[in-house]
Write a structure and sequence with these properties.
Blueprint: H1 25-37, H2 46-49, H3 59-66, H4 68-91, H5 102-116, H6 122-132, H7 137-162, H8 168-189, H9 195-217, H10 233-253, H11 257-268, H12 273-298, H13 304-328, H14 333-355, H15 359-387
């Protein structure tokens, strides 16, 4: 038998290009799609990625473990739809769709974006209701809390059931601060603000957050972590204060703790963006339930219009929220970032065109954006300083296990 030895540099594996061969447009498009839309999920450890079937497991246990991702998406809407259809048929609410169809259509996209990004569905509901539908900001805020108590909790269940990585320090400490901030904001801050201020402060603060995301994406090849390193009391205080201010934002806009948590986790504590996003979704879900309870059961102050929109929109968000969370756990961080950029640019331009704020309010809004950018820049510098204090600062980054094996060969930029 004759053996032919071929130099290793002349061997081209299947789907691998030689050094002198340029990729075709189709191949570049395929690689682009894999990188930005099929990156794969990040898990706490390898065991979470590959479920282990225990010996003697029943057929039901085996099915649940083998189809974890599918069940994570299916269970929330099945549960919520069962409850909603029972209520809808018993109370004959279908006639409301003749006049309240706008928000189900809006939240078809809003819940998906809320589940996919760190902004929450309220980031779409509030500006649409206040800027385009000319609805009172208080009603819009209440609706945002109400609908996120369904859509974001459904998305949170999907995240928890899939077993993807989360930052539990942030969930615990930010939730504590956010609860206090939300109640304080509803009782003190929100009544002191005018309608125009609520609308313009919302778009300005969210535009400042887009600046934070931009700063984050300028840090190429940065080292990221699964959880906060060397956690201590002062880092817990930072998270509580972050949650407090996030709760105040939620008190007049219906969402806010999510972007505060995301900014601090990524810029200061160098947490991976996907983990920060998934953590933020759990935070806004808890904050929304708290706000809904406070407005409905403690103050009994929710307007009938908000209730009607809520009843019509529930069956939409309980599907699109989990779907957004599922998709968001797979796509590249820059894909999520560009989705936020586009949303905030549209909201900012629409805010100035529709509200037409006076000179004083306009200057305040510009100041919020510039001041926010400066604040987030300082946060990013602090994060770089803390990064150098960690014991493994000079060690190569350990990549989290990911579900999509093809994405392991794709370098993050």
């Amino acid at each position: 038998m004759t053996h032919v030895v071929v130099p290793s540099d002349q061997i081209v594996g299947e789907g691998v290009l030689s050094q002198n061969e340029k990729p075709t447009f189709k191949e570049r498009l395929k690689r682009f799609g894999k990188k930005y839309f099929l990156e794969g999920q990040k898990f706490t450890n390898e065991d979470a990625r590959t479920p282990v079937i225990p010996p003697g497991a029943s057929s039901l246990q085996r099915f649940a473990l083998e189809h974890r991702k599918q069940l994570a998406f299916i269970i929330p809407p099945v549960f919520m739809w069962t409850w909603w259809w029972t209520y809808a048929i018993g109370n004959n609410i279908f006639h409301l769709y003749a006049t309240r169809y706008s928000m189900p259509i809006t939240m078809f996209f809003g819940a998906f974006i809320g589940g996919m990004t760190c902004e929450g569905g309220g980031a779409v509901a509030f500006p649409v209701m206040t800027l385009f539908l000319r609805i009172n900001p208080t009603i819009a805020r209440d609706f945002a809390l109400m609908i996120q108590s369904c859509g974001m909790t459904a998305a949170a269940f999907t995240i928890l059931y899939m077993g993807v990585a989360l930052e539990w320090h942030s969930i615990i400490f930010c939730t504590f601060g956010a609860t206090i901030g939300l109640i304080f904001g509803i009782e003190v801050v929100d009544p002191a603000m005018s309608k125009a201020q609520k609308k313009m402060f919302f778009v300005s603060i969210w535009s400042a957050f887009a600046c934070a995301l931009f700063l984050l994406n300028t840090q190429r090849k940065r080292k990221t972590y699964l959880n906060i390193q060397q956690f201590c009391w002062w880092k817990g205080v930072i998270l509580v204060v972050t949650g407090f201010f996030g709760g105040i934002l939620t008190s007049f806009a219906g969402t806010g703790v999510c972007i505060c948590s995301f900014s601090v986790l990524t810029l200061v504590f160098s947490i991976n963006e996907k983990i920060a996003t998934q953590t933020s979704i759990l935070l806004i879900a808890g904050n929304a339930v708290t706000g809904f309870f406070w407005r409905a059961k403690i103050l009994h102050a929710i307007d009938e219009l908000a209730w009607e929109y809520w009843k019509c929109t529930i069956p939409v968000v309980v599907i699109m929220g989990p779907l957004g969370a599922f998709v968001g756990s797979h796509v590249h961080r820059q894909t999520l970032a560009w989705a936020v950029y586009v949303l905030e640019i549209i909201a900012l331009i629409s805010g100035f065109l529709i509200v037409k704020p006076g000179l004083g309010l306009s200057l305040v809004c510009v100041g919020i954006i510039i001041g926010g950018f400066a604040f987030f820049f300082v946060m990013s510098r602090l994060g770089l300083y803390l990064l150098g204090t960690y014991p493994d600062a000079n060690k190569p980054e350990t990549t989290l296990p990911i579900e999509n094996k093809n994405s392991r060969d794709i370098a993050e930029t």
